[in-house]
């Protein structure tokens, strides 16, 4: 009895002193457990949602192949380039990949593009009349010209003839306005030479003849001729009228001759 009586005051005192601390610890532990449980529950819901989305995506892939919203556009796969609209360092290679070209095809296409960029302007010559010379012995009148328009290096014009400096196809045209009452008038374009083997051999390229009115006041007529021919380097073009002392109107807009390199 004496020992129990001695222990009761000390136990009561200890319980009285520890009760506030125990309550605080118990409250904190309870709140922590509730927070952890809430976080775990939210995480579980997110995981379940992701699993559901992955399951739906797998069904789409099995049913229809690669889903449309996951198919990358060509611009994404080729560095942001679309054929015909590419800019930047890899534009040509990206466009070529879209067309299915290999590296050799791309190089050949690039070379053709650069070649076109370096292409010279085609040569052009337009002649207008200055005066005429007539020769009774050969019954001929020759028109002397001056160059009204000249472009390129394929021609070397002179008053009575035009020398060709480059092989190739050329468009040749001529027009003469006659004021003459001779019953028939016209002009002839000749090519002289053309290569070492031809020497001074002449070839008739264009011939044009027109009937003329008998009335001198109305005796006007225009004769125009044109054609495409291959001209050799060194050949010479000449225009003549097979009439002595032919009546010709020497206006720029009515009598002229020209050659265009094709």
TrEMBL record:
Compositional bias per record (Basic and acidic residues), positions renumbered to this chain: 99-117
Location of this chain's protein in the cell: Secreted
Keyword Glycoprotein: yes
Sequence intervals crossing the membrane: 21-42
Chain residue ranges for the region called Disordered: 95-119
Coiled coil: none
Occurrences of domain THD (ranges): 123-262
Alphabetical keyword list: Cytokine, Disulfide bond, Glycoprotein, Membrane, Secreted, Transmembrane, Transmembrane helix
Pfam families: TNF
InterPro entries: TNF_dom, TNF_Ligand_Superfamily, Tumour_necrosis_fac-like_dom
PANTHER family the UniProt entry points to: PROTEIN EIGER (PTHR15151), TUMOR NECROSIS FACTOR LIGAND SUPERFAMILY MEMBER 13 (PTHR15151:SF12)
Family assignment from sequence similarity: Belongs to the tumor necrosis factor family.
UniProt protein name: Tumor necrosis factor ligand superfamily member 13-like isoform X1
Native source species: Huso huso
Lineage: Eukaryota, Metazoa, Chordata, Craniata, Vertebrata
């Amino acid at each position: 009895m004496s020992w129990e009586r001695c222990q009761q005051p000390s136990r009561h005192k200890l319980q009285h002193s520890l009760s506030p601390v125990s309550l605080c610890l118990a409250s904190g532990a309870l709140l922590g457990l509730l927070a952890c449980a809430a976080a775990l529950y939210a995480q579980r819901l997110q995981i379940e949602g992701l699993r559901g989305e992955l399951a739906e995506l797998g069904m789409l892939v099995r049913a229809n192949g690669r889903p449309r919203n996951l198919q990358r556009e060509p611009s994404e796969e080729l560095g942001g380039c679309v054929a015909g609209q590419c800019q930047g360092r890899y534009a040509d290679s990206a466009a070529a990949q879209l067309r299915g070209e290999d590296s050799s095809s791309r190089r050949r296409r690039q070379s053709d593009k650069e070649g076109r960029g370096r292409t010279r302007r085609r040569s052009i010559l337009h002649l207008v009349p200055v005066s005429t010379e007539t020769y009774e012995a050969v019954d001929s009148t020759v028109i002397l010209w001056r160059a009204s328009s000249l472009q390129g290096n394929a021609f070397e014009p002179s008053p009575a003839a035009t020398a060709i400096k480059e092989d190739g196809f050329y468009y040749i045209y001529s027009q003469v306005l006659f004021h003459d009452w001779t019953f028939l008038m016209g002009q002839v374009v000749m090519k002289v030479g053309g290569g070492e083997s031809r020497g001074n051999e002449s070839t008739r390229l264009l011939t044009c003849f027109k009937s003329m009115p008998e009335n001198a006041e109305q005796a006007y007529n225009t004769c125009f001729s044109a054609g495409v021919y291959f001209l050799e380097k060194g050949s010479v073009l000449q225009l003549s009228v097979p009439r002595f002392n032919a009546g010709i109107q020497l206006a720029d807009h009515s009598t002229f001759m020209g050659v265009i390199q094709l």
